[in-house]
Amino acid sequence: MQQPDDEIPMAHVFEEISTLALHGLLPEDLLFDAFAIDIYWSQLEARVQQVRKATSNDKFCENFEIAAELAVAYREERPAKVIRT
Question: Does the pLDDT of residue 3 top 70, yes or no?
């Protein structure tokens, strides 16, 4: 279960992974296939916004946010690999 104290370290992990992908050091396909980045973003966005406001740092976790938007497009463009009945 996610705890409030876990949110910022977790957001940092996704920021770092997203940064690697957005700079071409980690294939975006691998990132989006392995992690539901947009789902994690939706869970952590409010806390990230709080930190941005409190620190006046609009760049905080910006790569995570961008990757979340790209993850939605990735999923929309690719059907599920397993057909569920």
Answer: no
Q: Which residue has the tokens 């992974």?
A: 17
| 60 phi/psi in degrees, rounded to 5 | -55, 120
Q: Do the Cβ atoms of 9 and 44 come closer than 8 Å?
A: no
Q: Provide the percentage of residues in the chain whose pLDDT is more than 70.
A: 95
**Which residue in 40, 30, 47, 26 sits closest to 69, CA to CA?**
40
DSSP 11-52: HHHHHHHHHHHHTTSS-HHHHHHH--HHHHHHHHHHHHHHHH
